[in-house]
Amino acid sequence: MPADRKALMGIDVGTSGVKVVVIDREGRTIGQATVGYDVSQPKPLFAEQDPEDWWQATCSAIRLALARSDRRGEEIVAVGLTGQMHSLVLLDEAGAVIRPAILWSDQRTEEECAYLRDTVGLERMIEWVANPALTNFTAVKLLWVRRHEPENYARIRRVLLPKDFIRYRLTGEYASDVSDASGTLWFDVKRRRWSDEMLTALDVPSTWLPEVYESPEISGRVTEWAAERTALCPGTPVAAGGGDQAAGAVGNGIVRTGLVSSTIGTSGVVFAHADEIVRDEQGRLHTFCHAVPGKWHVMAVTQSAGGSLQWFRNQFADAERAVAAQTGRDVYDVLSDEARRVPAGCEGLVFLPYLMGERTPHLDPLAKGVFFGITPRHTRAHFVRAIMEGVAFSLRDGLALMEDLNLPVEEIRVSGGGAKSGVWREIQAGVFGRPVVAIEANEGPAFGAAILASVAAGMFDDVVTAVDAWVRAEDTAQPVAEDVDVYRQAYQTYRALYPALKPLFRAAPSREHAQ
To answer: Cys-Cys with 132: which of 70, 146, 237, 283 at CB 3.0–4.6 Å?
Structure first.
């Protein structure tokens, strides 16, 4: 085929849908498609999806992206995979799905976390897998299945993560990568292999777990069966890829020390590259393997970042949705316009974005969302901006912990849906007290997966070289001095609220028993 027709594909198995991008040899997006699906919440605290929905959405999105890119399957020289981390996929002897996947946002596993804290202990978990037991991690979800669904547990022969289930369908291979595996609580992050100690402590057979690769390595090739369903070419190499945060960081160019990203998607993440392993002994930050071979990253997570604004949109933004429908605009753009009319600090209104509990820095699944300081002056627009500011304050919590670990922060790059909002970029600049840089490509983790595929295809020697060629800065939001002072005071109020309210969070009726 002509060299200028060659292209890469990135597939992102997200929480709300599968996104597929097609990238040309210059790193430009020439086609993309997203096919959505829903999250099932059969009980309070539960969040599940059917992996078969991911596969059907993937097949549809691949075909749409190819059509929109004017490329045929045989012109895709490699595919990269990424997706939501932590979510538990269980397969039986025949490779069939046993039960719906338990998602990263599912909060049913606090008792399993307590069990691990009591039996293994925080110190040994940090030593073995570099992270504490959290309700989000894969291992505790498997313990929940063992305890509550023994009939399903008895059928398990394979345990996979979301993108790795799609890999299995594409290639027939059971494989993962070091960055995604790091979020399972079974992975020795320092040695970049499964942890024999943790698997033994949890009595989990190592045969259930996939082979692990570095992110730009080839992990398998598209089968004839998958090619018929996706329009890809049989034999197309599939890179190991990465968890959505590591792949998104590659797409943002976070591949050198000093570079940090702030991502606002459903969750929020502050992500820092590290040349050597860095661990928070209290477990408030996650330490995972990076998608750059031989490197690591440190990550702070806000459970409900963009998810908080989505909640407001769904419950209270009928007027904005009507305006958006009449004007053909995105409802989030309408909400951002409202937020821009409100001064920094929201005239004393502060929001805690703990709708789904919180990870960094509190590690508290019982934390809850709060609006504080409401007065008659506050309008709907104040509440919208307070949500944006509260999410930025939560991300600043993570940034402060990284600085405490002496991780250099030389440049902050913003991404995710939140980066599309000019006012949210400006809020982050003001809250962080430093400029924030937006990247030209806005395809998120799918773009990073395509970069990893380019290395697997031999187009670049390594990930850093590929990033230098393809990742370009587009816009910089500068902090406004007066806003920085206002945010500094508002942040102190924000910081004081959680310890004051923590006893009330624990005394409140459990969401598990809510009707």
So the answer is: 283
